[in-house]
Amino acid sequence: MRISAKGEYAIKAMLDLALSDSEGLRPIQEIASRQDIPQRYLEQVLLQLKRSGFLVSRRGSSGGYRLSRPPDQITVGSVLRAVEGSLAGIEPPRRTGRGRPGDQAGDLSELWQEVAEAVSSVVDRTTLADLKRRAAERQGARRPMYHI
Asked: Per-residue pLDDT for 98 more than 70?
């Protein structure tokens, strides 16, 4: 499975919004800067996520974006499907032929299907709240023991 830049940017932006969820609307410029995403491209991604019901926005100088529902109610899989389409895109190696008699490997299509199902299972059970928790744990590990 390949996640495009659009999929990665969508997850990064949604996590950014989840991390600042209590702060209200977040301007797109801030999200783009913090996540190192080209602003014009991020505008397209956020618009797609808004149309899919994941975001609420307001225009103007005090405008921006926020999540439409709590982070524990938004899965990574649902966000990826909103911007990528189906996640069934596990790409097996290209076959050069149908196989030969005595081919020990045989048809691996069942294996690739299992891999696709495993990936879907992980992204469908992982919420933005889970990613938020992981980010907090990583951040906590970097903090100095004593604050001066």
From this structure: no
Sign of CA dihedral 31, 35, 40, 44: negative
In the predicted model, is pLDDT for residue 73 greater than 90?
Answer: yes
Say how far apart CA 81 and CA 48 lie, in whole Å. Answer: 11
Alpha carbons within 13 angstroms on the beta-carbon side of residue 91 total 4
What's the fold here for domain 5-88+108-137? Arc Repressor Mutant, subunit A (1.10.10)
As a whole number of Å, the end-to-end CA separation of the chain is 46
**Site of tokens 């990064």:** 12
Mean pLDDT of 110-116: 84
pTM of the full structure: 0.80
Phi–psi pair at 33, nearest 5 degrees: -65, -50
Q: What is the mean pLDDT of the chain?
A: 85
Mapped onto helix, strand or coil, the DSSP state of residue 74 is coil
